[in-house]
Amino acid sequence: MVHLGLFHYEVNVLRLGLTGGIACGKSTVSAMLLARGAKLVDADQVAREVVLPGEPALAAIVSEFGQAVLNEDGTMNRAQVGKLVFNNPEQLSKLNSILHPAIRKRMWERIEAYEAEDPKQLIVADIPLLFETGQDAMYDAVMVVYVPQSVQLERLKQRNQLTEEQASQRIALQLDIEEKKRRATYVIDNRGTLAETEQQIERFWREQGLP
């Protein structure tokens, strides 16, 4: 693991898995990498795409859960799907068995297309549940955006207007941020100022020899 902006030269990173805990600032870091010329493949964005009308994943969800999961315009009723899987591990597992392969397939199609355009550019795959879904081994390196859990809790409470209990419950749904930090190739400490985070990203970019 490379911590707090201290980076190894020997890792040649072209496919970078980017992850972190909720409210740790992953979108801030992905924007900094994108601004430097990286190509971004965003798992959350792809997750929205694969359930659009006409997509095979949406058809599979309707087949599994029934027409009640559709709005009148044929789009997925996210609230209804949420009700079906809430506190129901079996139903959630069925949903994930449809969504996760579809998301992964679409992401890798996009990654391979970027590689075909320029095999030497950095491609960043922004995946909130990278470790939880076992995708970390698929990338040259993993960058974890880190803040201590106490900071994570306060930021989430403020950002989403949650109580401490509600924020703690959301954080508990993900792998502990300290474990993610332990398993990372690179750790970006995002508890400080934007300028301090920017310095760490700039150092990573330079030491990878990226243009």
From TrEMBL:
Entries under Pfam families matching the protein: CoaE
rRNA processing as UniProt keyword: no
A GO CC term attached to the entry: cytoplasm
Localization per Swiss-Prot or TrEMBL: Cytoplasm
Matches recorded under InterPro entries: Depp_CoAkinase, P-loop_NTPase
EC number in record: 2.7.1.24
Pathway linked to the protein: Cofactor biosynthesis; coenzyme A biosynthesis; CoA from (R)-pantothenate: step 5/5
One example GO MF annotation: ATP binding
Record carries keyword Transmembrane helix: no
Keyword terms: ATP-binding, Coenzyme A biosynthesis, Cytoplasm, Kinase, Nucleotide-binding, Transferase
HAMAP family: Dephospho_CoA_kinase
Main function: Catalyzes the phosphorylation of the 3'-hydroxyl group of dephosphocoenzyme A to form coenzyme A.
Family named by the database record: Belongs to the CoaE family.
NCBIfam families with a match to the protein in the record: dephospho-CoA kinase (TIGR00152)
Record-given protein name: Dephospho-CoA kinase
Organism, as annotated: Paenibacillus taihuensis
Designated gene of the protein: coaE
